[in-house]
Design goal:
Number of strands: 0
Structural class: mainly alpha
Strand content: under 5%
Largest sheet: none
Distance between the termini: 28 Å
Oligomer: single chain
Shape: globular
Order of helices and strands: HHHHHHHHH
Helix content: 55-70%
Radius of gyration: 16 Å
Length: 200
């Protein structure tokens, strides 16, 4: 990951320019790094009786997490807030289902699903599911199934209030300022943990 200052990330998260050809948000690099480290940790854990999740594919796509997120941004122009809210959704999902492991065969489907859901939550205007499916390399039926099952698995708890959003932004800023020094186990933490960490 290229060196990013906390100030640059803060500006990017809160003052992203709404131009016709914006640069890729810095948050994508930070989130990609967090997720890739989480995958590395998951691959070292031997899971017993592993459940097959809706996101699981038969093999890993030949695209890095960063490249996939950049592709989604390039074709949707989703702002940084969409990616932060998607990060909140991923974290909530991992908190609800601690047995779930983010890995190479499920991360891409998880990302396109959470980013599409976050876009619908954050943005006033959205692309159809068929467009997100095309970007993500899925059929419309697969995309619709992923969205529906994700919403039910999340118990439709998709609201992200401002304090939660700010706490996740703060976490990402601390990630940058520490130079990626967080322990892998703490890369995807719930909002309550982040809040209590801010108070210490």
């Amino acid at each position: 990951m290229a060196l990013i200052s906390p100030r640059e990330l803060r500006y990017d998260l809160h003052s992203f320019p709404q131009t016709s050809n914006p640069k890729t948000p810095l948050v994508i690099s930070v989130l990609a790094s967090l997720i890739e480290r989480t995958i590395a940790r998951s691959q070292r854990i031997v899971a017993k009786n592993q459940h097959r999740w809706v996101f699981d594919g038969d093999e890993a796509p030949d695209m890095t997490v960063a490249s996939y997120m950049e592709r989604i941004f390039r074709y949707t122009r989703a702002g940084p807030s969409v990616f932060v809210v998607a990060y909140v959704y991923i974290d909530r999902f991992c908190q609800l289902y601690p047995e779930f492991r983010i890995g190479p065969t499920n991360v891409h489907r998880l990302l396109i699903t959470t980013i599409m859901a976050a876009s619908k939550y954050v943005e006033d205007l959205n692309y159809r599911n068929s467009y997100f499916a095309k970007i993500g390399g899925l059929t419309v039926q697969e995309m619709n199934k992923l969205e529906t099952e994700f919403l039910f698995l999340m118990k439709f708890k998709m609201h992200v209030n401002l304090s939660v959003y700010d706490s996740y932004c703060s976490h990402l800023e601390r990630e940058v300022s520490s130079g990626g020094g967080y322990q892998i186990e703490r890369t995807l933490r719930c909002a309550q943990e982040i809040k209590s960490g801010n108070q210490t």
